[in-house]
Amino acid sequence: MNEFQERVYAVILAIPPGRVASYGAIAARAGLPGRARLVGRLMGEVPDGMTLPWFRVLRASGQIAFPAGSRGFREQSRLLKAEGVEVRNGRVPLSRFGLDADIDRAIWGMF
Length: 111
Prior knowledge:
InterPro entries: ATL_DNA_repair, MethylDNA_cys_MeTrfase_DNA-bd, MethylDNA_cys_MeTrfase_DNAb, WH-like_DNA-bd_sf. One of its GO terms (molecular function) is methyltransferase activity. The chain has a single domain, classed as Winged helix-like DNA-binding domain superfamily/Winged helix DNA-binding domain (Arc Repressor Mutant, subunit A). Helices cover 45% and strands 4% of the residues. It is built from six helices and two strands, in the order αβααβααα. It has helices at 3-13, 23-29, 36-43, 71-82, 94-97, 101-108, and strands at 21-22, 57-58. α2 (23-29) crosses α3 (36-43). The longest helix is centred in the C-terminal third of the chain and has 12 residues, at 71-82.
């Protein structure tokens, strides 16, 4: 595993249950700003035996990246809902379930 993989996987592993992050947010936290596509590529190269909470990773809009109705889409929706994450029409409100939601709420009083 290379350094980029290690950094990206560490960020994904740190996403707590009930929270989500975008590909871009993961890249930024891994010290790779602007490299959202790299995050997506690396998620497809997860080493055998490593289990990542892949389902907590979404597009910047909060949208599930799989095509609506596909097996992956259904599985990601199911796993997120099992953790209490609201998924409506394939989208998660990042203001409530994103990694930075608590910070925004504390500063701005957002719910």
